[in-house]
Amino acid sequence: MRAWFAGDFEGCLELCDRVRPHDVDMVSQLGLLRARALLRIDRPDDAIAVVRKVFVAHGTLDASLTARMLLGTALVRRGDHRAGLDILETAYRAAERARLSAVEDQRDNRGYPEPRPEGRRRPERFLHRPCARQEVAP
After folding, report:
1. b/e burial code for range 39-70 (CB count within 10 A of at least 16 → b)
2. Neighbouring residues of 14: CB distance < 8 A, sequence distance ≥ 6
3. pLDDT digit string (tens) for 57-101?
4. Rounded Cα distance, 10 and 98, in Å
5. SS3 for 29?
6. What angle do CA 43, 44, 50 make, to 5 degrees?
């Protein structure tokens, strides 16, 4: 990670090449780091190849959303704006749903001795909340 934080993205890629992943999660995280580094050095085609190669390895929702965001970003940087923005929009919607679900789970699991009578999931309370949405420039 020192290479990453020092801005040495080529060095980061070299270090990634030397790592021997021992499980699916490590394959996923290594692929995401590699894709980020490739995007930083303006190699979107390589980043797309890395994300697509390890896309099936993303076991967590967070890693899956990150992979989709990296793929969308790489497509936009490569010039395939429509496809990239579509992927980014889909990932944004999925992330918003995941965030709301996680917030609700966190609230519902704080010190309640028994389940609430109305149930754990109450998404309607989030329907009328404004959300700060960032626009993505093509």
Report:
1. beeebbebbbebbeebeebbeeeebbbbbbbb
2. 3
3. 555 667 788 888 899 999 999 999 999 999 999 888 888 776 655
4. 33
5. helix
6. 95
